[in-house]
């Protein structure tokens, strides 16, 4: 009997939607094993043996089996990155996602892309990285959410980035009565916990744990290379955001990446902050890392095979007043990296590049291009994708 029960459960779990818990015969807010077994046999009796009893609908039985298997028979709880806890009484079958890094994480843990019904408009423009968004509709931008599109789709939940930039979308969705979860999935320090929280809700916990193991393995490879690194070997690194003269300090994904790679962001500071030529020259960075991929440096990434803009920006950095005297310029240790390798699950690729740039002797065995290829193939279902992500290309 248990074997048959397991087989039926496996068949029902093929479909992973918010209403009262189905198949809860005693209305106590939980589905017990007995209730699940009873619901299955009632369905089989009525459907295949012309039974006269009451049976759940196929949709209710599918939802109940998901809840029993993935949520332990209770409503699904999810605490988002803003510390808010939402409770769902049905599986999540339709989502709208307003952050590319969150969508990337959702895909990486194995959530079917067919359930992504809406996305921020710029995500839909990146068809090379998200080719599987078939039938997905644009729901505006973070600054200008399309309330009409959200109302038309009415997804089970909208995933919105943490922070002020996501408030307009969160307010628009909440006004419509659509649940909102705040996740950014950008920081190396938090992407694991976010992936696990999302995976637990979406029935993709195994996939989330697999992703976390991969990230841990790549982190450990870098830590092994840097084992025994002394304080005087830590490299001073000026990390510049997409606009010129905006530094990335501790607490930013790029700044944290430098710290993990055996460097120290200079000038010292947290978050992003403005600098000038004099401040950078006084900091005397041994390495300069410039971020590209977002305005006003929106180039590179998938499909951008020609490094012309990379070369242009690299040359402009060298021509800034007084920068030719920087140790980073003298030693030709100025690098450009696409944001996709700095934020989200792909941060481990950027970490491997950063470690090699900062400590080429210690980290010569690291192969960031191979890590990138494995991630894309294993977690994104992408292969043979070309583009420019770092410059110089042989860095």
UniProtKB/TrEMBL annotation:
<dbReference type="InterPro" id="IPR002491">
    <property type="entry name" value="ABC_transptr_periplasmic_BD"/>
</dbReference>
<feature type="domain" description="Fe/B12 periplasmic-binding">
    <location>
        <begin position="94"/>
        <end position="366"/>
    </location>
</feature>
<protein>
    <submittedName>
        <fullName>ABC transporter substrate-binding protein</fullName>
    </submittedName>
</protein>
<dbReference type="InterPro" id="IPR050902">
    <property type="entry name" value="ABC_Transporter_SBP"/>
</dbReference>
<dbReference type="Pfam" id="PF01497">
    <property type="entry name" value="Peripla_BP_2"/>
</dbReference>
<dbReference type="InterPro" id="IPR018247">
    <property type="entry name" value="EF_Hand_1_Ca_BS"/>
</dbReference>
